[in-house]
Structure prediction request, 317 residues.
Amino acid sequence: MFHDQNFKNLILDYPREALSFFAEAEAALLQADARIIPVRQEQLQERLGAHFHELDIPLLVESPSGERAAVIFALEQETRPNRFSIHRLAHYVLHLSEMFEIDRVVPVVIFLEAGDYPKGLALGGHRKRYLAFEFIDFPLAQTEYQRYRNSSNIVARLNLPNLQYPPEHKLDVYVQALRGLRDLEGDPHKQMKYLDFIDIYADLTDNERKRFAAEYPEEVDAMSQFAERFIRQGLEQGLEQGLEQGLEQGLEQGMKKGREEGCLEGEARILMRQLQLKFGDIPEKVRLRIGSAAEADLLAWSDRLFVADSLDDIFAA
Prediction:
C-alpha cells in the first residue's frame, strides 16, 4: 500500500489543516492570513542534489508582511516506527535550513503504526553536548479518536480510522470520518479521492459493511451521491477529451498525448496553486502562459518563486 503517496496527497490538498492537526502547537502561532506553500520535490531534488531525501511535503510558510520563508514545516510519514531514521531527518532539516537560508524549521513525523522510536538526538563528547535535535512526533495509532471525533478539521476527520479506538467503536469511527468528508469538502473529485482514503484505512470486513448499510442508510446515500457526481463529471470530461484526441490522432496517440498532457497539467496546477497562495489572484495572461508552458519552463518558474517579490520577478526573464 502506498502510504507515503496517500499522506503526500492529503498534505498537498489540505496544507493548513494538516499543520493544525499534526503540529497543533506550532500552527497555533501562525497568523491566520499566512501563506502556506508546498515545496515541490523535483525542485528540492535539483537544488539539493546528493543531499536530497524524500519527505512527504515540506511546507513553506510566509507571513503577510512579506517576510520570506518565515518557517518551514518538514512533514514525514513513517508507516513503521522501527524504520524511522532520526539521523536522516536531521540531515534533511539542516539542508532545508541552508537551502532557504532560515533557522526556523519545524520537523514533524507522522507515525501510522504503534511502536518505539527515538525522540531526540544528542551528539557530543565527555565534556558537553554539541548538537541536539528534536522533532514533533504524531503517533496516529496512539492518539485517542474521541478527541477528534467531531473536529471541524478535515485532515483530523479523514484520519479517524488511523487513530486509537476500541474495536466496538469501529463503525462509529468510519461514520464520523464519512460525515466529516461530506460536511467539510464540497468538491466531488476530492470527495471520491478521500472516500477511498477512508475506506483504505478503515478496512471494514464484509460483515461490517453490511452492518454499516443497515444501521446508517443516510451515510450510504451520501456515498452514492459522491459517486454519482464524480461519475457524471468524469463522463462529461472523458467524452470531451476522448473525442478531441480520437479525432485528431486516433485512440492510441490520443491516450499517449493525454498522459503527457496530464503530467504537465499536474505540474501547472501545483505552480498555479503556489502562485495564488503567495500573490493572490493570478492575471489571465499568466494563467494562459502557464497552461501552455513546457516542463522546463514550469520548473524554472517554480525555482524563482521562493525568491520572487512579484510575478514580474518570475515571468519577466
Summary: The two ends are 43 Å apart (CA to CA). Residues 1-142 form one domain. Residues 47-52 have pLDDT under 50 and may be disordered. The first strand starts at residue 35 and ends at 38.
